[in-house]
TrEMBL record:
Belongs to the G-protein coupled receptor 1 family. The lineage of its organism: Eukaryota, Metazoa, Chordata, Craniata, Vertebrata. This is Olfactory receptor. The chain crosses the membrane at residues 26-48, 60-86, 92-120, 140-158, 197-225, 237-260, 272-292. It comes from the Eukaryota. Signal peptide: none annotated. InterPro entries: GPCR_Rhodpsn, GPCR_Rhodpsn_7TM, Olfact_rcpt. Keywords: Cell membrane, G-protein coupled receptor, Membrane, Olfaction, Receptor, Sensory transduction, Transducer, Transmembrane, Transmembrane helix. Pfam families: 7tm_4 (PF13853). Its main location: membrane. CDD domains: 7tmA_OR13-like. One of its GO terms (molecular function) is G protein-coupled receptor activity. It is found in: Cell membrane.
Amino acid sequence: MELVNRTEISEFFLKGFSGYPALEHLLFPLCSAMYLVTLLGNTAIVAVSVLDVRLHTPMYFFLGNLSILDICYTSTFVPLMLVHLLSAQKTISFIGCAVQMCLSLSAGSTECLLLAIMAYDRYLAICRPLRYPVLMSHRLCLFLAGTTWVLCLFKSVTETVIAMRLPFCGRQVVSHFTCEILAVLKLACGDTSVSEVFLLVGAILLLPVPLAFICLSYILILATILRVPSAAGRRKAFSTCSAHLAVVMLFYGTVIFMYMKPKSKEARVSDEVFTVLYAVVTPMLNPVIYSLRNTEVKEAARKVWGRSWTSK
């Protein structure tokens, strides 16, 4: 059956917004601009974090990981989506679909855990300031980030292999603009229960559990901030985590809507619009939020920019 599946299905047709040509022409310049801002903004965050010695701290190490993750995630599907917005042939190969699915799942899963790690880092920095350098050592930062990337990649490879080994019986039209795993599973003509169980367990481990951990961290952080005697001290403490809190709310709000809402047999345009919000707008806004809410990032950026102009 697997051999038949692979010979019959050599490519998929990504339906996307093909039924709405006017919307396609509107989305192309909009998504192109957002993708460009995403690349430039997140690359700038990584560059500043590396070039400025003052930002060689756990907080900016994880922020650099988040920026790299956003670049990787959007690059897995946005370039092909832009091509399809202007093309009548909206196809992707079977292998290409599997790779896109795996990398998208891995990047999304990694971001869920990375945001929880960043919340833990803020908790230690604010609630345990004297022991913070010891508790959040460079070795621990590398271990947490590396383990997160590897475990999420392994999880995503497993989910992708299980999904793509299912028989599709000649069904090729994916009602989505990417090889999103739930959209691909709707084409399967075999038993999808194993894949659905894996996805459900993954959704529980990567949505409610990290979110509960983040909420607990911020409850403890808030309690500590309220005990700070001076108003200036409270503002400074809150400013160090307000950007992260804004990113968490934006990211988890859209993800929970997309993956925890009741299933519908037919894909709706609203679902795809929210996917664009989750997949394109959020990575674009992350560097903007951190730049606007964090004076250290702004000062480091000005310093690096001034140094580059001076060298010229």
